[in-house]
């Protein structure tokens, strides 16, 4: 499924009544280049609180997706502290699973892909261009997954942050997923797919992607730019996000933006201590005392850098990508 076969199945899935991977289909063995042999599946399942069947069914896919999103935060703290981010699976697992931290899209979805493959799901790792309502061509800054389950191909994405999918959505044009107050739609746009979300009654583009073969170096290059380049959405700032069925929250430095189910948006200014408490509490990120101290210092520095600038509404981090 890491080749033209997936493209053909994806094209087929765009037609009504088509089938993809069914319950009786056995997935190919995971490709060793992704490091899936390093995964501690038991530790991951404990981390997200999953105790259900370990079978490659649609129900399992949905449960894992929901529970991963609820348990593991989206955050860029290592980037904010200028440490960089490793995509080696043992490093990702040590951080997101063993250490109780969160991560950003590359970490989330590469870990989630390894879990799904271990359970027998066919998975293809893809790179996407973030749009957030704009059509300009940007570098591929986001990771998503195409997953086969129950005679369907599904778009799975446990790592887009506040507005990201809570559950997978079928990968055929016009399919809609709903979870709580939020809705998402997949559309075919010439030779690519677009994921949209419903905002204020209108469909709003989140990102676009093509179904094509990718390799670990493709993700390494995108991750390196995202973690280090001055124009990246995630350098020079502290970011954390979470999305539930009722609320979508984005922390950027010392401002928390909360979108409610009725599309009312609140912005709350925070002190550095309040940011640390929020990360540990609301975002459920396990911070060491050392990291908490470094984050307070970083936030103080960022505040001093921005003190002379005129205040203006903050864009979401992904809008700057």
* Oligomeric state of the chains present here: single chain
Largest sheet data: 8 strands, antiparallel
Termini Cα gap: 30 Å
Secondary structural class = alpha+beta
- How much helical structure, as a percent, in the residues? 25-40%
The CATH superfamily of the domain at 228-306 is known as: Arylamine N-acetyltransferase
- Mean pLDDT, all residues: 88
Evaluate the radius of gyration. Answer: 19 Å
Shape: globular
Tally of helical runs: 9
- What is the H-and-E element order? HHHEHHHEEEEEEEEHEEEEHH
Give me the CATH fold name of the domain at 228-306. Answer: Arylamine N-acetyltransferase fold
How big a fraction of the residues is strand?
A: 15-25%
Task: Describe the protein's topology.
Elements: H1 4-13, H2 41-48, H3 58-71, E1 74-75, H4 77-80, H5 89-98, H6 105-118, E2 123-130, E3 142-149, E4 152-156, E5 169-170, E6 176-179, E7 182-189, E8 192-199, E9 202-209, H7 216-228, E10 239-243, E11 247-252, E12 255-260, E13 265-269, H8 272-280, H9 289-306
Antiparallel strand pairs: 1-10, 2-3, 2-9, 3-4, 4-5, 6-7, 7-8, 8-9, 10-11, 11-12, 12-13
Could you explain the architecture of this structure?
The protein is α+β, with helices and mostly antiparallel strands and 321 residues long. The protein has a domain at 228-306: Arylamine N-acetyltransferase (Arylamine N-acetyltransferase fold, 2-Layer Sandwich). It contains nine helices and 13 strands. It has an eight-stranded antiparallel beta sheet, with helices on both faces. A five-stranded antiparallel beta sheet has the order 1-10-11-12-13. Strand 11 (247-252) and strand 12 (255-260) form a beta hairpin. Helix 5 crosses helix 6 (105-118) and helix 8 packs across helix 9. The longest helix has 18 residues, at 289-306. It is globular, with a radius of gyration of 19 Å. The two termini are 30 Å apart.
């Amino acid at each position: 499924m890491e080749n033209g076969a997936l493209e053909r199945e994806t094209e087929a899935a765009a037609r009504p009544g088509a089938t993809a991977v069914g319950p009786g289909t056995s997935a190919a063995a995971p490709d060793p280049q992704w490091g899936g042999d390093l995964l501690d599946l038991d530790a991951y399942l404990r981390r997200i609180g999953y105790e259900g069947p370990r079978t490659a069914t649609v129900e399992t896919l949905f449960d894992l997706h929901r529970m991963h999103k609820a348990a593991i935060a989206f955050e860029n703290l290592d980037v904010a502290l200028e440490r960089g981010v490793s995509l080696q699976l043992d490093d990702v697992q040590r951080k997101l699973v063993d250490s109780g931290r969160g991560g950003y899209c590359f970490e989330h979805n590469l870990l989630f892909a390894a879990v799904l493959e271990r359970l027998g799901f066919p998975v293809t790792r893809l790179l996407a261009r973030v749009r957030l309502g704009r059509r300009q061509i940007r570098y591929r800054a986001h990771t998503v997954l195409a997953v086969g389950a129950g005679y369907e191909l599904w778009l799975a994405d446990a790592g887009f942050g506040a507005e990201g999918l809570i559950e997978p959505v079928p990968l055929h044009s016009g399919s809609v997923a709903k979870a709580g107050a939020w809705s998402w739609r997949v559309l075919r746009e010439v030779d690519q797919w677009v994921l949209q979300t419903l905002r204020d009654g209108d469909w709003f583009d989140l990102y676009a992607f093509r179904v094509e073969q990718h390799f670990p170096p493709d993700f390494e290059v995108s991750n390196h730019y995202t973690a280090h380049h001055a124009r990246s959405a995630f350098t020079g700032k502290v970011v954390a996000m979470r999305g539930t069925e009722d609320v979508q929250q984005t922390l950027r430095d010392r401002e928390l933006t909360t979108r409610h189910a009725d599309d009312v948006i609140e912005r709350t200014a925070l002190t550095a201590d309040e940011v640390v408490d929020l990360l540990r509490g609301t975002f459920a990120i396990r911070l060491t005392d050392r990291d908490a101290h470094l984050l307070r210092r970083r936030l103080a520095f960022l505040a001093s850098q921005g003190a002379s600038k005129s205040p203006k509404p903050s864009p979401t981090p992904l809008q700057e990508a």
